[in-house]
Amino acid sequence: MPKIVLLIVTLCLLGSCKKDFRSKTYTLKEFNHSGVSGTVTFKETSNKTITAVVLDAEGLRIDTLYHTHLHLGKPGALTGTLIYFRELRTTTGVVHREENWSETYENALQSNTCFTMHNPDFFTNDSSGYVLAGNTGANAQ
Predict the structure, then answer these.
(1) Per-residue DSSP letter, 66
(2) Residue 71's beta-bridge partner residues?
(3) Alpha carbon distance 14, 98 (integer Å)
(4) What percent of the chain has pLDDT over 90?
(5) What is the CA radius of gyration of the chain?
(6) 21-140: CATH number
(7) 3-class secondary structure for 67-110?
(8) Long-range contacts of 86-92 (CB under 8 A, 24+ apart)
(9) Is the pLDDT of residue 15 over 80?
(10) In the chain, what are the domain boundaries?
(11) Is the overall model pTM greater than 0.70, yes or no?
(12) Is residue 17 classed as helix, strand or coil in its secondary structure?
């Protein structure tokens, strides 16, 4: 009987040792009177070499493809693309998308990065072609 009690206590203790993962949310800025608003969140994962990048946005046009990226640099001064949010479209005007980034959470917070969502009718890599954008990581400080 004592072995069963020890097993139950051990299982209860292990179950209560769940790690609370850290996260940091960045509010994005509407561009060009698009009516689009949203946030990007960097979330720590159980895999220490991966950070989840979560986009939540609303005000999107239905059944419209939006080119959406996490970049090195700042909006209007991009120096590289880290993540493509492929085939980003919605049937409701609201989107929740999570992509994995091969970067530790600590490095993600210190990154010189930004997020951009491009105008589906006028694609450019400067602010005149954005509907939603904002600094992330160290650029947001």
Answers:
(1) B
(2) 81, 114
(3) 28
(4) 78
(5) 19
(6) 2.60.40.200
(7) CEEEEEEECCEEEEEEEECCCECCCCCEEEEEEEECCCHHHHHH
(8) 88/55, 88/117, 89/60, 89/63, 89/64, 89/65, 90/60, 90/62, 90/63, 91/62, 91/63, 92/62
(9) no
(10) 21-140
(11) yes
(12) coil
Structure-block tokens of residue 1: 């009987």
* DSSP label at residue 138: G
Torsion angle in degrees (nearest 10) through CA of 66, 72, 73, 76: -20
Query: What is the token pair recorded at 51?
Result: 């950070």
pLDDT digits (tens, 9 = 90+) for 42-65: 999 999 999 999 999 999 999 999
What is the amino acid identity at position 52? A
User: With contact defined as beta carbons under 8 Å apart, do 26 and 134 qualify?
Assistant: yes
Residue located via tokens 């046009």: 61
Name the region of 35 (left: φ>0; alpha: ψ -120 to 50; beta: rest): left
